[in-house]
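Quick entry, no commentary yet.
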Amino acid sequence: MHCPFCGKSDTQVLESRSVEEGGSVRRRRECVNCKKRFTTYERVKGVGLWVIKKDGRREPYDREKVKRGILRAVEKRPVSREMVDDVVEQIDREMLRKEKEEVSSKIIGRSVLRKLKKIDKVAWLRFASVYLEFEDFGDFEKAIGKA
């Protein structure tokens, strides 16, 4: 592991613990060279999951893309970064449990909507407006009526 401060590869693990319900390992490290401390996370690399987009294109599943979409929806809302990370982890596990090589973007989007609805209705509506491609105020009214 290279130190993010000085770039040397000689680091020492000070503490390790399981996080995200055992889905990854958090390690607190210290650089032997500059003595600065930093945190790393280890997780099992995804198993080649492909996403089928609305237009039929295929692209590799990217948890960071899911996270960016959720972060945009919860911007300036009382939702912690930990809650977002937890939602992303739940979606990852849900997609991998399907035991398929391909998953529709619709399935991922619906999963995000279900989870956002439980934690913040405004963030849910923001995400829905982009995901469901709202075109006018009437679309918002319909969505709010269903909420």
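second:
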Amino acid sequence: MSAPEGYIEVTHGKLTVNVPRKLFSGTDAKLDEAKAAEFGRMLKSRYPWLTDGSLEVLFRNARFEMLRVLDYETGGRNESKRLEDQGDIEGAIRHLKKHLEEDPEDADSWYALGNLLCKAGRTDEGYQAFNRGRSLF
């Protein structure tokens, strides 16, 4: 079973919850504390045995799932951007290359890889990646 549109499915123990995607923002899936508190109160009203610790674990798992979903939906570009923002351009390059091994027809990811390679000073490889992406249109 999958979550309805606008939600991600998160499991904590035997409990499976559809968590609204709107609780998160940005490429780092930052949790909006106010929205999370409101959602947490609603969950506790439905499942009174949930503790604050359980909710904390549920929201941590939800963030990891949101990051995974964002990366899947963007063809690896979300995690690559996160790595680049953290100063790990080589890690970002490796991440995109891994995605492109699985989906070599993803033109947008080829362009993103070309951009990263050029930023890393590997312009010949960057231009090859740009050309590969262009050839897919």
